[in-house]
Amino acid sequence: MITRLSQLFLRTLREDPADAEVPSHKLLVRAGYVRRAAPGVYTWLPLGLRTLRKIEEIVREEMNAIGGQEMLFPALLPREPYETSNRWTEYGNNLFRLKDRRGTDMLLGPTHEEMFASAVKDMYSSYKDFPVTLYQIQTKYRDEERPRAGVLRGREFIMKDSYSFDMTDAGLDEAYARHRRAYQNIFNRLEIDYAICKATSGAMGGSASEEFLAVSEVGEDTFVRATNSDYAANVEAVITPAPAEVPIEGQPAAVEYQTPDAPTIDSLVDWAHAENIEVAGRAVTGADTLKCMVVKIRDARPDAEWELAGVLLPGDRALDEKRLEAALEPAEFELASEEDFAKNRFLAKGYVGPRSLNANGVTVYADPRVVKGSSWITGADAPNRHVVGLVAGRDFEVDHYIEAAEVKEGDRAPDGEGTLTLERGIELGHIFQLGRKYTEAFDVQILDENGKRATPTMGSYGIGITRMLAVLAEQRHDDKGLRWPVEIAPYQVHVAVANKDAAALEAGAKLVEELDAAGLEVLFDDRAKVSPGVKFKDAELLGMPFVAILGRAFADGIIELRIRGGETLEVPASEIVSRLLELVRG
Ligand code: ATP
Ligand code: MG
């Protein structure tokens, strides 16, 4: 097919839009792929829509290949199913709620577990109907607190969401593995640089869960990768390898000291150096000190009260609130307030140690490094006093181990394979084993082989289609413009006539006919009154992978073939069609 730039609904911009911060956003707007309609809401212009449809098609092919059946739910949904799952409330301000003319509550769907679970309940009743995988490519609505970077985080966006239903846990494992492979195929075909990260299951509950993160500096998610293996995980999901327990016998008794000038970890370490205090025969470091953070925790029951708790961390590490939040989920936590300290007189602010927590029935959570037999310098529960040689399992007890300490670059990898690096990424897809949460909530009852009622188990798998387009623009661009992979570029070949000669224009018109006849998709810059310089700039901005230019050299029968982001070839006019065919077909 041939599209003529002289007729295409397109206006490229030389200036970056004022509200754009990240390169993909700037370029997609400047190149006329998308246009802002409202904050976080975008219009797809002809070029953008072509690429979007191609991405959709790749996802569709891979979903069909694993036996997914495509269907389509509405975006406008009734309240009841979301009431059943409690997400009408849980979703909070992220949910677009509205009323119809009769005053009936409705919503714009943020994700569709409820609808799929109830459809399966209504239509299926026997184990013979299972397993089944259903999917849709559909517009979602979320009133994001911070819509960002154009279509990267929109309030309206397109997602492929699929759902597997199985009668057995083994079946769910298989459905999960199939999706994992399908996602790998999709991201490999699109040439995306990504990592598969172990994830916490978050608010959805459930067990196995992984996120596909595109590696990108502008990403909002931090993840870790091991230097010597393909281990990768969300920071929230990193498991700290616990050191070996230490024998308690023979360790010196704890000793208390007056420490008037040691309110911080650094000053405490300085004090220990000045006093020649050693740990295991070496100088003290921050990692030998123990911080006792006082927090309060409230579990998920509606009538639950806040309860005081302690979180013990090696002194050289900050509390990572997101990790603690993920570890406690669905319970929530807050740091203890001045009021809490005032009310609980045994808490010596700045000098809290684990002993007073144990003695006053406060639950003690600890970092996995606080193993039995480990010895610490920590607060002695009185102003300006510290204790040295306080041994876990002898002088204080840990009630629960928890992942709450910050993860640092260079930490030992959980699989023992080297160390961790910290990187930033953009979540492109999420697969997880949901289990029976929704099928139970919707009371999906299926007769099993023995005629007994059973509840199927569910997996839920999402990929952001519109976000994927932004990620491709983000990972593949240069200072001049976009640079699409052939498979999803709006057009495979961009032909520009940069020569006022009537013969060149005529030859260009003939060339695009030939390319079209050969089955290629061609964008033809046939604009008569536009200078060669502008045409070249636009070609770079729009980002088609191959640009054929009929310019000055055309008088000598030469067409310039620019590979976007690569070399420029001089090709005799007689060979250009076959060269392009070779390049496009790869
Ligand atoms: P995020 O943490 O980025 O908000 P999420 O955990 O809310 O993502 P899911 O609910 O798992 O995302 O949705 C599945 C996929 O939909 C995501 O992996 C992402 O690709 C896409 N997605 C989610 N929210 C948005 C959004 N606001 N704009 C564009 N795509 C989105
Ligand atoms: Mg989200």
From TrEMBL:
Catalytic reaction equation(s): tRNA(Pro) + L-proline + ATP = L-prolyl-tRNA(Pro) + AMP + diphosphate
Principal location: cytoplasm
Entry EC number(s): 6.1.1.15
GO annotation terms (biological process): prolyl-tRNA aminoacylation
GO cellular component, one term: cytosol
Boundaries of every Aminoacyl-transfer RNA synthetases class-II family profile domain copy: 35-485
UniProt signal peptide: none
Entry annotated with the keyword Ligase: yes
Compartments, record wording: Cytoplasm
PROSITE patterns in UniProt: AA_TRNA_LIGASE_II (PS50862)
GO molecular-function term, one example from the UniProt record: ATP binding
Pfam family, one: tRNA_edit
UniProt function note: Catalyzes the attachment of proline to tRNA(Pro) in a two-step reaction: proline is first activated by ATP to form Pro-AMP and then transferred to the acceptor end of tRNA(Pro). As ProRS can inadvertently accommodate and process non-cognate amino acids such as alanine and cysteine, to avoid such errors it has two additional distinct editing activities against alanine. One activity is designated as 'pretransfer' editing and involves the tRNA(Pro)-independent hydrolysis of activated Ala-AMP.
The family this protein is said to belong to: Belongs to the class-II aminoacyl-tRNA synthetase family. ProS type 1 subfamily.
Oligomer and partners: Homodimer.
Written domain comment of the UniProt record: Consists of three domains: the N-terminal catalytic domain, the editing domain and the C-terminal anticodon-binding domain.
Protein name per UniProt: Proline--tRNA ligase
High-level lineage: Bacteria, Bacillati, Actinomycetota, Actinomycetes, Mycobacteriales
Encoding gene per record: proS
